[in-house]
Amino acid sequence: MKIITKSALLLTALLVTTSAYAGAEDGKELFEEAKCMECHNAEDFDNSKKVKNFHQLQTRVDACQRNTGAEWFDEDTHDVAEYLNKEHYKFKK
Ligand code: HEC
Fold first, then answer.
1. Alpha carbon separation from 14 to 18, 41, 62 (Å, rounded)
2. Which of 35, 49, 70, 93 is most buried (CB neighbours < 10 A)?
3. Are the C-beta atoms of residues 24 and 82 closer than 8 Å to each other?
C-alpha cells in the first residue's frame, strides 16, 4: 500500500514537471472552447492589477470556469492558467 502511494506520487510529480509546456497547449484549447472571451478581452489579462502571482491566477480561472459551467478538473484549470500565464501574465514560478 505504501509503495503504491509512493509511486503514484512520483508519477504525478513526473507528469506535472514534464507537462508544463503541454499544459499550456491543452489550456489554449480549453480556453477557446469555454468562450471565456465572451466576457474578456486580452487587455483584461495583460493589464491585470488584481492577479499578482500564479496561484491567484489559478484561483481566478477556477472561479470563472465555475461560473461558465465549463466543469473543468483541477488539471484543466491549471492548464488554462499555464496558457494565460504564458501568453499574458508571465509570472515566474
Ligand atoms: C460571465 C462573464 C465571464 C466569463 C464568461 C468569464 N469571466 Fe473571467 N472574469 C469575469 C469578471 C467579472 C472578472 C473580474 C472579477 C473581479 O473583478 O474580481 C473576471 C476575472 C477573470 C480573471 C482575472 C483577470 C485579472 O484581473 O487579471 C481571469 C484570469 C479570468 N477571469 C479568466 C476567465 C476564464 C479562463 C474564463 C473561461 C472559463 C472566464 N474568465 C470566463 C467574468 C467572466
1. 6, 34, 23
2. 70
3. yes
For residue 22, the model assigns a pLDDT of 78
Do the Cβ atoms of 48 and 61 come closer than 8 Å?
Answer: no
Atom of ligand 1 nearest to the CA of 36: 37
CA-closest residue to ligand 1 atom 2 = 39
d(CA 32, CA 55): 21
Evaluate: CB of 44 within 6 angstroms of ligand 1: yes
The finding on whether 70 has its CB within 6 A of some atom of ligand 1 is yes
